[in-house]
Amino acid sequence: xxxxxxxxxxxTARLADAGAASPRADAEELAxxxxxxxxxxxxxxxxSAFDARFWEFVxxxxxxxxxxxxxxxxxxxxxxxxxxxxxxxxxxETEVMVGWALETLRDMDVRDPLVVDLGTGSAxxxxxxxxxxPRARVHAVEKDPTAFVHATRNVEELDERGRVRLxxxxxxxxxxxxxxxxxxxxxxxxxxxxxxxxxVPRDVRDHDPADALWGGGDDGLDAIxxxxxxxxxxxxxxxxxxxxxxxxxxxGVYWVFAEEHGWRDVRNRRDLANRDRFVTARLxxx
Length: 286
Prior knowledge:
The chain has 286 residues and is α/β, with parallel strands linked by helices. The protein is built from ten helices and nine strands. The protein folds into two domains: 3-63; 84-283, Rossmann fold (3-Layer(aba) Sandwich), CATH 3.40.50.150. Substrate binds at residues 188-191.
């Protein structure tokens, strides 16, 4: 047997015993990062090239450190992003919301749509929209200086056409110069109530930045309420908003986008696991 594949099998067992949700995938990703190959190329690594640092990475994952912090990278749609301590690691669930945003932009009769990403973190959403909707102009807002460094690095490396503009600012007051002109506001804000602390996976609560997790208020929706007010300020009549939430908050977020605030066509939308994941709404055009 190939030495590296044998070591990956041993690491898989160790990670499974440690409670990793996807031990085989984690072991392969760690091995690929150490040996600077793709997971599909692991079988081609010769025995002489085996790097013992693999077991250092495995030990860190066993101890609960996020896989993406160890490898320094996260995959999101068509992107490979640089991540690490101090920035929220993008999740696959958010890709579904980005897919909806891209479909909505394609359906708009707008030549160069203007998009705002509130709380951009690693810039995963902003960069995906800029890549997949080539005529879109994207403004991405992040208030945390450490996360902003990660976003800046990703934008500099991946935004070849210069369609993303980053802003270090609180999204409650950012981009007033764009008030009433934006076509789409999208956000994956913090939304976990502190009352659910004990149910959050250890590698999330111990390593993802607190400001990206805990939404504030008894229901965890205070940050989403800020997003709603900001979106209402930024959007043109007929513009759209999309906001991610947990699978238990769909009803609460639905009512945040109230009709008396000018919202229409409010809908709860589901992720690939058929769970409520994000709310979309249109600002009244009349």
